[in-house]
Amino acid sequence: MKENNLRYIIETWGCQMNEEDSEKISGMLKSLGYSPTDQREEADIIIFNTCCVRENAEQKVYGNLGMLKKLKEKNPNLIISICGCMMQQEGMAEEIIKRFPHVDIIFGTHNAHKFPEYLNRARQEGKSIVEIKQKDEGIIEGIPIDRKSDVKAFVTIMYGCNNFCTYCIVPYVRGRERSRKPEDIINEIKGLVNEGYKEVTLLGQNVNSYGKGLEEDINFAKLLRLVNEIEGLERVRFMTSHPKDLTSDVIDAIAECDKLCEQIHLPVQAGSNTLLRRMNRNYTREKYLELMKEIKAKIPDVSITTDIIIGFPGETEEEFEDTLALVKEVEYDSAFTFLYSIRQGTPAAKLENQVDEETKHRRFNILIDEVNKIIAEKNKKYEGRILEVLVEGLSKNDDTKVSGRTRNGRLVNFEGSKDLIGKLVNVEITKAQSFSLIGKIVE
Ligand code: SAH
Ligand code: SF4
Ligand code: F3S
Prior knowledge:
- By secondary structure, this protein is α/β, with parallel strands linked by helices.
- It is 34% helix and 23% strand.
- It has helices spanning 16-31, 55-74, 92-99, 115-125, 170-174, 182-194, 220-228, 248-256, 273-278, 285-298, 317-330, 357-380, and strands at 7-12, 35-36, 45-50, 79-84, 105-107, 129-131, 152-156, 158-159, 178-179, 199-203, 235-239, 263-265, 303-310, 334-339, 386-395, 398-406, 411-415, 424-432, 437-442.
- Residues 6-124 form the MTTase N-terminal domain.
């Protein structure tokens, strides 16, 4: 590889899908001889990888794009590029170019692999390039990936989403479901193990429908069992599961396979049947609670996490109370709580009975208080226990400590040096904090 002295910075908003796309863009740039920097002022190429799942994600991008104008004035050779989910929305690319003419390259989620080509063209032609594709061009394998961690890696097993929950923009900006071939996934993970990786997280918007449309006789449970066979791999996680598609064979696989960690992220979104119907989630509160029972019975020490939306159009006090009651009943180990955000183009955006901001915030605060109380109580129960921790890196703000996660996903900080990174160690939990644990290493 020839170095070219040019530096890039990629700033990523949104979920692991975007993180992975950014790792691919970075991988391509590195293989072309570019090197990364973490300072915008030092960069020759600045790339924003955007998310549009909620309005505040978009607002942040606008603010940041505005700030780049000065940098471009100082360094006219600077290439500014913006990509990701936000760009896939109708009319968005045109609006960005109009409002921020200092942007050089705009592309979407279906053509990130073409970035090096757009970069060349932008340099040669000296004018802005806008390339958004409405459909994917098939799954592109073999793109170099420059991963952030040396210990754990995200591996996408499927792209897109077919579910069209009425509030959600993801299916419109990420396209229809398509699965990678099992051998491509297995080979990628074997390659990672050879490089020293210990943990993989299999990614998809709805991993339980993995395999549909492939010629191979495969489904998600079978894939999990195949991945579990990979020698040298220590831990396997996955996200996201959709409650309507989570089957007993997946739960059994977690219970039976030693590498599959005892952790399930199962977004419930709401605890009321009428709300779930309006959200087009295709399961009931009863079905969800049945799943919880089965999971807890079959997988000891399992940790269950979720996503919840507050203030969906028409949400009544009673419906909100149902969500709150479900949260108390399930006792989540962690929950991502979101204020409903109108996304143009989705069915829920057309509903007239939007919940007023004050009500939304009031309910949101009640929910968060409850969730935090449950998490703290659950963490407390870990005091005195000895748990296996995979060390991921030095602790934030304290380099005499390292941090890692238990099999069921809890963050643990303890005294240790950087040669522990990548190792599995036993740690005695000495103190539970609100969102993490403190411990000491035991022989
Ligand atoms: N495919 C995953 C996650 C998709 S987006 C799933 O089905 O669970 C991550 C989370 O963002 C969702 O679970 C949902 O809770 C939240 N979300 C999506 N659209 C939203 C909106 N319009 N307003 C607020 N939260 C939203
Ligand atoms: Fe969005 Fe629903 Fe698809 Fe998840 S399953 S990405 S919430 S449409
Ligand atoms: Fe955001 Fe796109 Fe993920 S909209 S949540 S980055 S799929």
